[in-house]
Amino acid sequence: MKDVLLIALFAFLGAAAAGLLGAGVLRLLRHRSLVVSLSVVAGVAVTAMLAGTLTVAWAMFLSSHDLYVVTTVVAMAALVSLATAVLLGRWVAAHSRELTLATRSFGDGGTFAAPAGQPTAELAELARELAATSAKLDSSRERERALEASRRELVAWISHDLRTPLAGLRAMAEALEDGMAVDSGRYLRQIRTEVERMNGMVGDLFELSRIQAGSLTLTPARISLYDLVGDALAGVDPLAREHGVRLIGDRIDEVPVEVDGKEMSRVLGNLLINAIRRTPPDGTVAIAAHRSDGGVVLSVTDSCGGIPEDDLPRVFDTGWRGSHARTPPAGAGLGLAIVRGIVEAHAGRAEVRNVQGGCCFSVTLPTA
Question: 330-347 burial string, b = 16+ CB within 10 Å, else e?
Fold first, then answer.
């Protein structure tokens, strides 16, 4: 037993010396190719075995012939190990280069296509993660393009909507200044109407900028849906009478919600005004509220005739106003974008779908 322990000690000392030497070489070559690193590892393994064998052989006073035989066996093992390490290293390095080229393609704006047959589980996992990242980048680029198009459209609409009332205001102001206005009271009332309209547009732009900048501050409080909807209906009733639209709000559950009353009143107001303006005379606009598995659902259904399926994904985009036939004279396409921003700030979601004879806007909020 003592001899075995002594042999193990000598073998360990020889192998440890070879291991320390190999660790130093690996540190010096740590930035080199994988082929070099694998070759060093294989060399360290064989050298450690050889060093341990020679140390034990020296301690046991083996004959020169026996020592030569042992050295030859170890040398053959070293050749096979080095050849295997080089082949494996070249194989992994080749697939790594393919992965690098594929990654470069989607970094330049293309789509990542993972090379087939990854040699190791780690490279295969890396390829899957790169494919997932590529998909996310594609989606992000698509959203960025949509947002940029939406911004350009918004600037165009705002420029048009501001230029028109400004031109009218200038003409009326010049007429009043030159004494050419027959009915100055009518001109003054028209000026006030246009100023209020422009003030509303500027207010919408300010609200949207707060939402997009993440500076919208909410003051949530426990409110009954019944009271919230009742106030919103009372606020838009004059507009509905003016357009000859009938308001229906008889399906309101008295469910409490934890929301900012002012901001949610704006949400309901925007949805109801949008529905009233797009509903023909003698049409109906219905608002409902109920509890569901996903939270509390508020819905506004109009009689606008529906929205084209291609436009449904863009309804809540900034600046979207649909076709010219459905666009009212007032508004800059900000109302629905503000609705989505406020609802998402309440950890909810806003959706739209077509129904028979019109469309239904729904807002889902967390329960109190």
Answer: ebbbbbbbbbbbbbebbe
Cβ-count burial 167-176 (b if 16+ within 10 Å, e if not) = eebeebeeee
List pLDDT tens digits, range 241-266: 989 999 988 778 778 888 888 888 98
CA–CA gap between residue 317 and residue 212 (Å, rounded) = 12
End-to-end CA distance of the chain: 77
| Residues 123 and 115 sit within 8 Å (Cβ to Cβ) | no
pTM value? 0.56
Which among 273, 288, 280, 281 has a CA at the least distance from the CA of 331? 273
* 290-325 exposure pattern, b = at least 16 Cβ within 10 A, e = fewer: eeeeebbbbbbbbbbebbeeeeeebbbbbbbbeeee
Cα(130)–Cα(52) distance, integer angstroms: 45
SS (H, E, C) 42-107: HHHHHHHHHHHHHHHHHHHCCCHHHHHHHHHHHHHHHHHHHHHHHHHHHHHHHHHHHHHHHHHHHH
CB 358 within 8 A of CB 336: no
Tens of pLDDT, residue by residue over 300-310, are 999 888 888 88
Q: DSSP 3-state assignment of 310?
A: helix
Q: How many CB atoms lie within 10 A of CB 249?
A: 17
**Token pair in block for residue 332:** 């800059």
Task: Show Cβ contacts of residue 340 under 8 Å, excluding neighbours closer than 6 positions.
Answer: 316, 350
